[in-house]
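tool_call: predict_structure(chain=1)
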Amino acid sequence: MEPLALKDIHLPEVIGWWPPAPGWWLLPIILVLVILAARALYKRLTRKTAIGGARRLLADIRRQQNDRLRTLTDLSALLRRTAISTSAARSEVASLRGQAWLDYLDRSLPDQPFGQGIGRCLADAHYRPTVADDIDLEALFALCERWLKQREKKS
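tool_result:
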């Protein structure tokens, strides 16, 4: 019998790294979506926490209104801290003063109660030695609550 002419064992070709499998295409897309969702959730939670804390502080200020000037100063500081905490452009909000600050507060509300209404006293109350007697603090507290509710709706 004659020996068969056999060929040596063939090894398969080396598998290349390109193009990647479909799972590797999906991985970066899913990763980006997870990062964006986590960022949005973090912003939403911090915004809600800031507004919830502001509501509690507003209730504390309302209970402790002994001095009218101190009450106005505390309300002004509370609104500013809340605006800075919940705004995307923190540095822009922090630098606002006077009418620009009131205009920023009015952006959330349709009737401009800060620039042309009872909220006007918050622009410079903390710089005055005394407070005018005609300022209705209950209306001002209601306005601050309304502003906080409007900020909460935006989130």
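agent: The mean pLDDT is 90. Proceeding to next step.
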